[in-house]
Amino acid sequence: MNLKMKIKIYSAFFIFVTLTLICPLLTKVESPQPRTSHKAVFSFFCAERFIKDTINIPYTQNKSNELRNPKISSSSSTDLNINKYTIQKVLSAESEEENTYLLKINNPDINYNPQQIKLDEKNRILLEHLVMGEAGTEGFIGCALVAQTIRDTLHYENTNDVEKIRQEYKYDANLKNSPNDDVKAAVQYIFDEGQSVVQHKLLFFYETKLCSSEWHETQNYVVTYRTTRFFDQNI
What we know:
mainly alpha, 2 domains, 3-stranded antiparallel beta sheet, 3 strands
């Protein structure tokens, strides 16, 4: 520490002692007052600010501005414990309406407004295993598209029986694998929250890596995600 800085610190300390201790004693009052009077507090504040200005200490009150607009990086989602399907929804939402859609399509159905379906424990377990078998490696979007297809089919058939849909619509996925986080998040998003990936009814899909399907291609094409094509019924 150089001499100039020492002089500043000693000067600041002298002023602090003068303002906080000596000045209040020179003030005559009619009734005794505690040492922590308004004048003493004010003197302390002035001395503190003078010292901070002298040795260039930044005021902590300015740090509050850093909390108003935090910069959230891609890695901060883990620290904030934000569910990834929520992040995807926010990043890809097309509007500020209550029901937003994760994927944009060329032929949205403005009348598409599916209602929420409540699942009992048996149907939820079967549904999660079914989505896992059909799209467990396709990420949240892929799982959510399959979940939307099943939900729309349940509406179309006017039933809550997932097993009935599995048999009648020829779902042949392996049901032995335990549902992963993407599957559980997708089922919650589609069934519990009543959301949708696309603004259109979905009834059928097929995986182009596994087969080609002339019949599917005669239906009303809606969207492709990765290598899976999704369709509504052809009117």
